[in-house]
Design a protein that fits this description.
By secondary structure, the protein is an alpha+beta fold. The chain has seven helices and six strands. The protein folds into two domains: 98 residues, HPr-like (Histidine-containing Protein, Chain: A), CATH 3.30.1340.10; 69 residues. The radius of gyration is 23 Å and the shape is elongated. The two termini are 34 Å apart.
């Protein structure tokens, strides 16, 4: 009898939730918004989790489109996957910039490689092309293959430092969010508040309109 009651209660809630979702979808106002991506390491754990919580709070579906790919915003894992494409685009933009500035044409100098890479990072940060969190590149220089050209070495070192989170490339990339307008407005508010983190990835307070993100059901 006890199991019978639990089963029926579970079915009751499941069907009730399904009816509510159907009603919400029927009356929601669909819209699209171009919104900037997180500046600090893209869609890593914090911004991805907050975005997912916003969508789950309203119970409707929201899609994010960026770089010709679509992602389900209610799934943090989907947003993590978007980071792969974003990081590829960031690297493409960076090396395109270096080619344009003819930086690689000056790499056959006799200065130590560590000096060349560090000097490059300083130049790029001064020109607001990247953000550096750690200039220590010694571990990358220790594993250098002497058969590589200077350009290949710099390319690999910068790529490895991005992957390790020591540097990040600034970008004005935007994603197209499509779905329930109420959800999009809250996502826009989150983005306007730098996805709840500062430039170094530390927590910052969110506005009262997003206070539901800190309720017990989201902890």
């Amino acid at each position: 009898m006890y199991n019978y009651g639990l089963k029926n209660i579970s079915c009751y809630f499941e069907h009730g939730s399904s009816i509510c979702r159907t009603i919400l979808k029927r009356y929601m106002e669909t819209d699209s918004m171009l919104i900037g991506i997180p500046a600090y390491r893209g869609f890593h754990v914090r911004p991805s989790t907050l975005l997912s919580k916003i969508v789950l709070h309203y119970g409707t579906d929201v899609q994010m489109s960026i770089l010709d790919e679509n992602y389900d915003v209610k799934s943090p894992l989907e947003l993590f996957r978007a980071n792969e494409a974003i990081n590829r685009e960031k690297r493409r933009m960076l090396f395109s910039y270096l080619e344009k500035m003819q930086y690689f044409g000056h790499l056959e100098r006799d200065e130590p490689l560590e000096y060349i890479i560090t000097h490059l990072l300083f130049d790029l940060e001064r020109n607001k092309i990247l953000i550096s969190y750690d200039y220590d590149i010694s571990e990358f220089c220790r594993n250098i293959n002497d058969s590589l050209t200077r350009k290949e070495i710099v390319t690999r070192a910068v790529t490895a430092m991005i992957a390790a989170g020591k540097i990040d490339i600034t970008t004005d990339l935007k994603a197209l969010f499509t779905g329930d307008r109420r959800v999009l407005l809250d996502i826009k508010t989150l983005a306007d508040n730098t996805y709840g983190e500062d430039q170094a990835g530390r927590n910052i307070p969110l506005p009262k309109s997003l206070s539901y993100l800190h309720r017990p059901e989201f902890s």
